[in-house]
Amino acid sequence: MLAVLVVLVALIQTLVPAHQSRELLPDTIEMVPLDGTAFELGRGRYVGPVEVVATAAGLGVVETRPLDDYLTGLREVPATWPPEALAAQAVAARTFAVWSIERGRTRAGRIYGYDICATSACQVYRGSAIAADGSAAPWVDAVLRTSDEILIYDGTAAHTFYSSSAGSRTRPVQDIWGGEPAPYLVAVDSPEAGVTPYGEWTVELSAEVFARILAAAGFNPGPEIADVTVARPPEGSGTSAVIVATEAGNTRIGAGSFRALLNTYGSQLYPGLLPARRPDGRRWPQAVLSYTFDIEWEPAGSGIRDELARFLPAEDRPRPGMVVIAGEGWGHGVGMSQWGAKAMSDDGATYREILGHYYGGLQPVAAELPERVRIGLVQDAAAVTMEATGPFELKGNGLSLGVMPAGTWAFFHSAGGVRVVPPAEVAARSVGFLSRNWPR
Predict the structure, then answer these.
(1) What pLDDT, on a 0 to 100 scale, did the predictor assign at position 48?
(2) Which pLDDT score, from 0 to 100, does residue 411 have?
(3) The pLDDT of residue 12
(4) Does a structural domain hold residue 353?
(5) Is residue 336, in this structure, part of any structural domain at all?
(6) Residue 339 falls within a domain, yes or no?
(7) Which of 310, 327, 344 is a domain's end point?
(8) From CA 259, how far away is CA 292, in angstroms rounded?
(9) Are residues 46 and 154 located together in one domain of the fold?
(10) Residue 89: which of 354, 330, 285 has the closest Cα?
């Protein structure tokens, strides 16, 4: 009987093509541009080389660039800002990139093989192909002018946090994320009043709306809110927390978690309300813009609305009271304020003076830097589509597949690796060009 089963299995294996049981696909597809080709992906334009990497978690897209070419593709501040503010930003961004490489890759970086991500979680990168745009020239000049310069603390690249706007004063690093203080990430006055558009902001929420947002985030403070306050230790002593008091007791929410839940669940539940509107009628970029805020609890008054509410069924009555969140700045507020750097530059400060002010006196120095940086453009994707503007060499697991033409190229995650769907005209004449035994 066993011999018969073995024969049957062998027969089935000869009848069923290998690609139907497990496709022979590459783990990595590399696109090497030729003749000035760029690859358009989302909002960015990348000149590569660009790799599409298949892992158990999905597809990742990684671009490799010389360090300063990577910097020219950052879009952290407008290129129209004063030259000294741009130079300060260039040094801070270069230092942050070097710090990221020296620190070692994050978990996602290890999975997909990149040093730094391309989002605001690291630095906002849109591809160095956009450096060719004349409007980016002042930023490119700032990068080249400060080439090789970084801030160093204790023999290594400093962790140069920066954010859009600090309001009136930056924050010590331990007051935002806890942990140990850093001598160059301390609180300093930020002279950006009248310059930053994020100097002051206010969010007003009814108690009912506030309670529903908390509940969506997994917090249930109790039947009726009695007070909402911010518990803030003295500057430099650690993180703040929001205290929601009810008859059932107090609910304590860390300031970071509070900001995140308002920005996530508030905007999801009440998109017409959050983010709130600015005085000019436009909306703020987030519901809670920074970690620097106070909260005032306004109990219900004795107006007509409250008197009329008494006649509604209990389940239909709005919860009384208002939560008023008043803050300043946009972002975490640690390190350099970008709008503060602009304000200082407007007043005649040099980029060295700006950096020294915001980073505890550290000054830029020339240093030996990594030649290249690998940037994570996409992570954990089921599919990726890129537009090639011209010809490029296509490689699979390091094996050249030849020169490919411009067009829309799609990549899909498969258990066997990366499935490539080329433009129709390529597919028509290259059916099966990915079916082979791939080097591993």
Answers:
(1) 86
(2) 96
(3) 29
(4) no
(5) no
(6) no
(7) 327
(8) 10
(9) yes
(10) 354
Whole-angstrom distance, CA of residue 117 vs CA of residue 107 = 12
Residues 418, 373 within the same domain: yes
Residue 190 included in any domain: no
How many structural domains does the chain have? 2
Domain endpoint, select from 279, 305, 327 = 327
The answer on 366 and 321 residing in a single domain is no
Same domain? 420 vs 377: yes
Tens digit of each residue's pLDDT (9 = 90 or more) over 48-71: 899 999 999 999 999 999 999 999
Tally Cβ neighbours within 10 Å of residue 203. 23
Task: Specify the pLDDT at position 135.
Answer: 80
| Under 8 Å between Cβ of 228 and 250 | no
- 129 with 219, same domain? no
Residues (pLDDT < 50) of the chain are: 1-21, 302-304, 431
> Do residues 140 and 248 share a domain?
no
In terms of domains, do 146 and 206 share one?
Answer: no
pLDDT tens for each residue of 2-31: 343 333 333 323 333 434 435 678 999 999
Model pLDDT, residue 310? 62
Query: What is the pTM for the complete model shown?
Result: 0.87
Residue that the structure tokens 């924050």 belong to: 171
3-state secondary structure the chain: CHHHHHHHHHHHHHHCCHHHHCCCCCCEEEEEECCCCCEEECCEEECCCEEEEEECCEEEEEEEEEHHHHHHCECCCCCCCCHHHHHHHHHHHHHHHHHHHHHCCCHHHHHHCCCEECCCCCCCECCHHHHHCHHHHHHHHHHHHCCCEECEECCEECCCCEECECCCECCCHHHHHCCCCCCCCCCCECCCCCCCCCCCEEEEEEHHHHHHHHHHCCCCCCCCEEEEEEECCCCCCCCCEEEEEECCEEEEEEHHHHHHHHHHHHHHHCCCCCCCECCCCCECCCCCCECCEEEEEECCCCCHHHHHHCCCCHHHCCCCCEEEEEECCEECCCCEEHHHHHHHHHCCCCHHHHHHHHCCCCCCEECCCCCEEEEEEEEEECEEEEEECCCEEEEECCEEEEEECCEEEEEEEECCEEEEECCHHHHHHCCCCCCCCCCC
Q: What is the predicted pLDDT for the residue at 300?
A: 79
Residue 291, domain extent: 201-327
State whether 140 and 220 are in the same domain. no
pLDDT score of 372:
97
